[in-house]
Amino acid sequence: MRIRERLSSGRPCFSFEFFPPKTEAGVQNLRETVAALRDLNPTFVSVTYGAGGTTRDRTIELVTEFQKSHAIDVMAHLTCVGASRDEIAGVLQRLRDAGIENVLALRGDPPKGETKFEAPKDGFAYADELIRFIRSNFTFGLGAACYPEGHVECRGLDGLRDLNADLAHLVRKVDAGADFLITQLFFDNDLYFNFVGRARKAGIAVPIIPGIMPITNVEQIRRFTEMCGSTLPQTLMTEMERHADNPDAVLSQGVAYATAQCFDLLQRGAPGIHFYTLNKSAASRTILAALRTIWPPAMRPA
């Protein structure tokens, strides 16, 4: 089923994001992780995408397997990195032939070792170009990314992030055919709701799903937020750093914080939660189970 149809049900949407492992042992662990989600009946799971080679192929293989073996709706990520239009069309045809109905269309990060994204020959420079191409040639349900704090590369002459320019880019993605949006991770819910308010004023009417990453490792979350430009509240980090040498305490506190964050998001009208799992879904499963225990509207998945 297309995710846009799930979102129209009026019930909260819960989803989990994974990345394709590089080893067969990692793939087997991921299979077991996804199988463990079945009892929670997630709305969908998604698998990220690598440019070229076995990582790209493994994304296609995994989403195909998960949909067939676990009866879970899936979404394949797709980027513009390192591929011509014909190559991207070939990937989309493989996804379509495998019965995949949903794609998250992204520009993608620069290849490893490069600091600036360069459009491939006969490829796409921006996500809205990719979305328009998919919408014109295929019938997938389409998602796109958005950034409550602005994309880390979208900066003005003063070097600061240009939120207005970033929002204009997002309008182009939606106008090109995106059905829904998933946010970059954040830890302050006011950032999300302020962003949603700005998006609505700009004419964006599609659902905006908040992306949440439970903190399970202090150094890891510090690296991730520095890379993507998300803000860590100082009070949260101060408390986390107090327990940095106690993994169990960090995990417990991270799950508690994310559970409260998700509960507040849902109570205030967010259409669901997209969990960034880093292929370790135990924390996210705990949070979803708690939400369905303490908040009746979350009991029945979309």
Question: Overview of this structure, please?
Answer:
The protein is α/β, with parallel strands linked by helices. It has a single domain, classed as TIM Barrel. The protein is 46% helix and 14% strand. The chain has eleven helices and eight strands. It has helices at residues 3-7, 24-35, 53-70, 85-97, 127-137, 163-176, 189-201, 218-228, 234-242, 247-267, 282-294; strands at 13-18, 44-47, 74-79, 102-106, 141-146, 180-185, 208-212, 272-276. It has an eight-stranded parallel barrel with strand order 1-2-3-4-5-6-7-8, surrounded by four helices. The longest helix is centred in the C-terminal third of the chain and has 21 residues, at 247-267. The mean pLDDT is 91.
How many beta-strand segments?
8
User: Unreliable stretches, pLDDT < 50, 5 or more residues?
Assistant: none
Biggest β-sheet: count, sense, barrel?
8 strands, parallel, barrel
Instruction: Name the helicity range.
Output: 40-55%
Radius of gyration from CA coordinates: 18 Å
The CATH topology comes to: TIM Barrel
Secondary structure category: alpha/beta
What is the succession of H and E elements? HEHEHEHEHEHEHEHHHEH
Q: Based on Cα principal axes, name the global outline.
A: globular
CATH class: Alpha Beta
- What number of structural domains do the residues give? 1
Instruction: Tell me the distance between the termini.
Output: 11 Å
